[in-house]
Amino acid sequence: MKIWLDGKLVEKEQAVVSVFDHGLLYGDGVFEGIRAYNGRVFRLDEHLDRLCDSARAIMLKMPLDQAGIKQAVLDTLRANGLKDAYIRLVVTRGTGDLGLDPRKCPKATMFVIADRISLYPEEAYTKGLTVATVSTRRNLPVALDPRIKSLNYLNNILAKIEANNYGVPEAIMLNAEGYVAECTGDNLFIVRGGRLLTPPTATGALEGITRATVLELARGLNIPSSEENFNQYEIYTAEECFLTGTAAELIPVVTVDTRPIGTGKPGPVTLKLIDAFRELTRREGTPV
Ligand code: PXG
Fold first, then answer.
1. Distance in angstroms (rounded) separating the CA atoms of residues 90 and 75
2. Which three-class secondary structure state does DSSP give residue 180?
3. Which of 44, 86, 234, 275 could form a disulfide with 230 if both were Cys (CB 3.0 to 4.6 A apart)?
4. Phi/psi of residue 240, each to 5°?
5. In the predicted model, what is the mean pLDDT of residues 110-132?
């Protein structure tokens, strides 16, 4: 396996970063999870826009311009001969000293890993997931905006530990006001009263690329949709629920906090959107 690291393609064993890298010492950096389908990278420009926005938000100077980063992603896929892949793109503040001060990090570290995707079992898509609301609240936007896809994922990891302990694969996280925010690595949608609803991102959720794609597909399919705050009550009384993310794509949720959602089976709107999403990932994307 070849890893792109600071401008060079190196073997996995040689792909190492310093113990003084502030990405490791402080979670000071940004990242993306991107996917390639059959030799095409899905929504690559959107992922790179988000990465650059996250970097701007934390005042991290990127080592390359957006065209250069795009080239690095494509070079990594070619070097590994991968047509279907999960791509992890990471930019850290770089190597500094033991203090917090980013001025001690003269140059950002960047690496790209392209690996095979580990997916939920097919059964999860046909039968749906069971998830639970956890006590860990999503980061407060006034402290660390969840729209920044930073390397500091401790908030989500604490929620994931709770999910593990409950024996469920994902956790629903609320924001500080108690509204539903998102899951640890996925955005959340419900269908209620025939309308597709997802929480707004400004109050505590990542601007998911899959989330945006689903809202776009819904418009094309004449499914009324809206980004609005809702509570657990709206989930419990919804007809359908599903999660979205690059790794999971769209995955139905049939049980939340031990309650069946709707009929307790993946619903028709979810299944229609899953089909439309799969068709789209086959059709578009930046060729490798
Ligand atoms: N919310 C959060 C907090 C995320 O980290 C998403 C939503 C979905 O966004 P996209 O753009 O992928 O539709 C993410 C996705 C994993 C994993 O292993 C997922 C993510 C990051 C790291 C790991 O599932 N991000």
1. 15
2. strand
3. 234
4. -150, 160
5. 93
Mean pLDDT within 261-276: 98
The Å distance, Cα 209 to ligand 1 centre, comes to: 9
Instruction: Band the pLDDT of 120: cuts 50, 70, 90.
Output: confident
CA separation for the pair 54, 141 (Å, rounded): 14
Is the whole model's pTM more than 0.70, yes or no? yes
pLDDT at 118: 79
Q: At what angle do helices 44-57 and 66-79 cross, to 10 degrees?
A: 130
* 3-class secondary structure, 20: coil
| Residue 12 annotated among the catalytic residues of the structure | no
Ligand 1 binding pocket, CB closer than 6 Å: 33, 156, 182, 185-187, 206, 208-211, 244-247
Contact present, 199 and 230 (Cβ < 8 Å) = yes
Helix (H, G, I), strand (E, B) or coil at 103: helix
Closest residue CA from atom 24 of ligand 1: 185
Residue type, 109: T
Reduced to 3 states, what is the DSSP secondary structure of residue 125? helix
Q: What is the pLDDT of residue 117?
A: 85
Choose the catalytic residue: 149, 160, 265, 272. 149
Whether the Cβ atoms of residue 29 and residue 91 lie closer than 8 Å to each other: yes
Please report the beta strands in 2-45, taking only residues with DSSP state E, as ranges in sequence order: 2-5, 8-11, 29-37, 40-41
Residue with structure tokens 């530990």? 161
